[in-house]
Specification:
- The structure is a single chain.
- With 142 residues, the protein is α+β, with helices and mostly antiparallel strands.
- It has 3 helices and 5 strands; from the N terminus they run βαααββββ.
- The longest helix has 16 residues.
- The protein starts with 14 loop residues before the first strand and ends with a strand.
- The model has no long low-confidence stretch (mean pLDDT 97).
């Protein structure tokens, strides 16, 4: 286990973590079962395209969770994440066969020495297109 990050060692703009998270149809089915979200746009191609989507798409909450997991792993403690917000900017199409690859880059957006927190800005993309906008997590380090 790596040591917990230290606020004094961080600088605005510093990259903290980078990860590629694959998602395939099997993962969507498992997520649907765990979350109770059985909306057919997450598993049925015909339904997804009939409502104007490019095909089956990943659950928005799965995408949010995959992105913040990068921050949790960097922080070393899920309880250190005291706030997390984002906007959904575009869906994550999941091909069949195959997988979508969600790219997550976490960087220091702001430091608050008095509060002992760092705002971590996340860039979350699929094939170069942002799928989450203004994705930010606040992590308490002190």
């Amino acid at each position: 286990m790596s040591p917990r990050p230290v606020l004094a060692d961080l600088a605005v703009g510093q990259e903290l973590a980078r990860r590629t998270v694959p998602v395939d149809r099997d993962r969507l089915v498992r997520y649907a079962g765990a979350s109770g979200d059985f909306n057919p746009i997450h598993w049925n191609e015909r339904v997804a395209t009939s409502v104007g989507l490019p095909g089956v798409i990943a659950h928005g909450m799965w995408t949010m969770g995959a992105a913040v997991a990068v921050v949790v792993d960097w922080a070393g403690d899920p309880a250190a994440v005291v706030d997390y917000q984002t906007r959904f900017t575009r869906p994550v199409p999941v091909p069949d066969p195959g997988e979508a690859r969600v790219e997550v880059v976490a960087a220091v957006g702001a430091l608050d020495a008095e509060a002992g927190t760092v705002r971590v800005d996340l860039t979350v993309t699929v094939e170069g297109a942002r799928v989450l906008g203004k994705a930010q997590a606040v992590v308490r380090l002190a």
